[in-house]
């Protein structure tokens, strides 16, 4: 599908001037030619024999008439590399091909070119991203110096210095690496392991998602469809539902705590503040991912970079406002600026829907349970109706006969907040169950049975689509049952794992999931998720040769992307997510009178207030305590 040629060797060619060899008369430019073949009789004659020669193609392309009609409707495209003198216009090549082969249905177009001695200027967004990154690096560096060099007792204004510490890399790293096992919500610490596994599952699925042209014999995908291991890759979409379930659990817990602290604020203003805080927490790291996308021209070169990159930047220039308005999931994936921005949009939309019902659950539990349950049922009905109305697939299926339906699935199911709403509702109800009924006494055998059922159900959800991949299609009844029940049942299994661990009947799992190193990776999971799709683009843009489409090769790429993902995710955390989180806490501390102590008539905020012990903890509180003791001793 792609003949890359020799990219770097072509760009390195220089032709010196005959009279003055120190000067260059011209150099080489690398261009990519898109070759289109429409209604080619030779293709029609040989296609059936080609399909019959391969057992996998023969298995999946049983209807040769359907294949021929597809070839007639969709022109075959082959990309070829051209190494031309820089003095030649590349537009002359499509002209010659049209003259020579046009009557046979062959046409062509120049997709992109690169001339290293006549480089195109970076997009405006790249210069803006460089400026923003440099400013943030300078702020973080200065704040870190202040955090290191200025002792707290010499600070003129504790609130101002706490504000500076919000941007400190030292303080952010301490927040990232500090693990408090005595915290009030320690019974939910198994969330960290689930979050890390889900983030890695997403990366694994994204690793396999690349430009088919960069693969050696990409039709070997049909062989992978008959491998059960590949089903684990395709069903990585359930890691998204896992994240939404965890969001529902944490949303209920945080709403309960914040509502107790701000009881005097009426419901509507409180809800607006909750949604606004969530929007800022989601938006700032997303803008960091946007900066990372615009920084790619400064670091990445490759054949696909020359013509594919502008496709994404053009989408950003036309529809950048989709991101701050959180409506990115209302556009198709080919219109997206950042491919995974739909996740943040769907997240905030569900938070907007569930804020008032969660407050009702806190105030009137019985009514709240019925209300949230009704919302979950509505979401389930929506998922089933989309399969009936638009004939979407029940999940991601890559078989030829279901490919167009799988695209509809991604539009109406995968990126839709209404389709995922049931998982967040299950998470909220599960959080209520964990918080109020985790101390219930039950036989250990019941929990053992629960673990067995949980493993069986989750394995069924993941591996049942293998049947459809193997057969090449799905039945309507089983597809409808799967699309309506798989998400809420999956969310219920996630809740069960957390409930069993919180109740003390999952200690081996809890010990594995709450390890300090797992907690650190868990706190980086959002930035890691934002970075993962960009890493896939980098691999696609920089490809010089075709690679084998095998599990071994993809796992190598997965391990490399995992390392790079956490490194770049940590940088994104220091510059974007960490300061946003700290600023949010700093503002809340100023608004909450519970988080202060009185000293010489001044109110000094304490960073880590524990609701359970009604006391402060952490480095800042200890420093303030020492300052108070020093002041008392000096007076005595």
TrEMBL record:
Residues 3-95 form the Nose resistant-to-fluoxetine protein N-terminal domain. Keywords: Membrane, Transmembrane, Transmembrane helix. The chain crosses the membrane at residues 127-150, 230-252, 282-300, 342-362, 369-390, 410-434, 446-468, 488-506, 518-543, 563-583. It comes from the Eukaryota. The keyword Membrane applies. Residues 189-536 form the Acyltransferase domain. One of its GO terms (molecular function) is acyltransferase activity, transferring groups other than amino-acyl groups. Pfam families: Acyl_transf_3 (PF01757), NRF (PF20146). This is Uncharacterized protein. It comes from Varroa destructor. The lineage of its organism: Eukaryota, Metazoa, Ecdysozoa, Arthropoda, Chelicerata.
């Amino acid at each position: 599908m792609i003949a890359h040629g020799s990219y770097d060797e072509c760009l390195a060619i220089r032709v010196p001037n005959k009279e003055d060899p120190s000067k260059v008369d011209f150099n080489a430019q690398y261009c990519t030619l898109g070759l289109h073949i429409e209604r080619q009789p030779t293709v029609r004659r040989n296609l059936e024999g080609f399909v019959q020669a391969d057992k996998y193609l023969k298995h999946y392309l049983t209807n040769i008439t359907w294949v021929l009609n597809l070839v007639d409707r969709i022109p075959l495209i082959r990309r070829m590399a051209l190494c031309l003198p820089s003095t030649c216009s590349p537009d002359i090549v499509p002209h010659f091909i049209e003259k020579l082969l046009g009557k046979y249905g062959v046409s062509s177009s120049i997709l992109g070119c690169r001339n290293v001695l006549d480089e195109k200027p970076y997009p405006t967004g790249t210069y803006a991203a460089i400026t923003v990154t440099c400013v943030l690096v300078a702020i973080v560096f200065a704040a870190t110096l202040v955090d290191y060099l200025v002792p707290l007792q010499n600070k003129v204004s504790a609130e101002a210095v706490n504000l500076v510490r919000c941007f400190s890399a030292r303080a952010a790293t301490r927040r990232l690496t500090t693990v408090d096992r005595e915290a009030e919500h320690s019974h939910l610490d198994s969330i960290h392991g689930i979050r890390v596994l889900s983030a890695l599952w997403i990366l694994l699925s994204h690793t396999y998602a690349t430009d088919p042209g960069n693969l050696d014999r990409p039709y070997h995908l049909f062989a992978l469809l008959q491998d059960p291991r590949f089903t684990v890759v395709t069903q990585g979409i359930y890691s998204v539902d896992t994240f939404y379930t965890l969001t529902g659990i944490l949303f209920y817990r945080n709403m309960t705590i914040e509502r107790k602290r701000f009881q005097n604020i009426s419901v509507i203003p409180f809800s607006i503040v909750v949604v606004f805080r969530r929007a800022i927490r989601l938006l700032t790291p997303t803008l960091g991912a946007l900066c990372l996308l615009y920084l790619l021209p400064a670091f990445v070169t490759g054949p696909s970079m020359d013509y594919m990159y502008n496709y994404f930047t053009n989408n950003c220039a036309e529809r950048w406002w989709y991101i701050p308005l959180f409506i990115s999931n209302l556009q198709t994936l080919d219109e997206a600026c950042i491919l995974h921005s739909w996740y943040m949009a769907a997240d905030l939309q569900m938070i907007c829907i569930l804020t008032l019902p969660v407050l009702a659950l806190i105030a009137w539990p019985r009514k709240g349970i019925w209300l949230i349950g009704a919302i979950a049922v509505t979401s389930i009905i929506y998922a089933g109706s989309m399969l009936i109305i638009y004939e979407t697939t029940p999940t991601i299926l890559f078989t030829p006969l279901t490919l167009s339906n799988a695209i509809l699935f991604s539009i109406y199911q995968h990126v839709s907040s209404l389709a995922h709403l049931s998982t967040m509702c299950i998470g909220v109800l599960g959080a209520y169950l964990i918080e109020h009924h985790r101390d219930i006494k039950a036989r250990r055998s019941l929990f053992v049975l629960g673990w067995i059922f949980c493993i069986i159900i989750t394995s069924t959800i993941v591996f049942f689509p293998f049947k459809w991949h193997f057969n090449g299609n799905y039945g309507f009844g089983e597809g409808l049952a799967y699309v309506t029940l798989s998400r809420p049942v999956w969310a219920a299994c996630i809740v069960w794992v957390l409930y069993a661990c919180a109740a003390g009947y999952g200690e081996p799992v809890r010990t594995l999931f709450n390890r300090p190193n797992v907690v650190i990776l868990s706190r980086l999971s959002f930035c890691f998720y934002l970075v993962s799709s960009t890493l896939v683009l980098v691999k696609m843009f920089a490809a010089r040769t075709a690679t084998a489409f095998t599990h071994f090769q993809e796992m190598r790429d997965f391990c490399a992307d995992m390392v790079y993902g956490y490194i770049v995710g940590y940088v994104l955390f220091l510059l974007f997510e960490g300061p946003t989180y700290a600023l949010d806490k700093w503002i809340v501390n100023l608004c909450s009178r519970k988080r202060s102590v009185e000293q010489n008539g001044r109110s000094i905020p304490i960073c880590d207030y524990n609701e359970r012990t009604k006391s402060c903890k952490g480095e800042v509180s200890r420093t303030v305590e020492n300052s108070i003791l020093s002041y008392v001793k000096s007076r005595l």
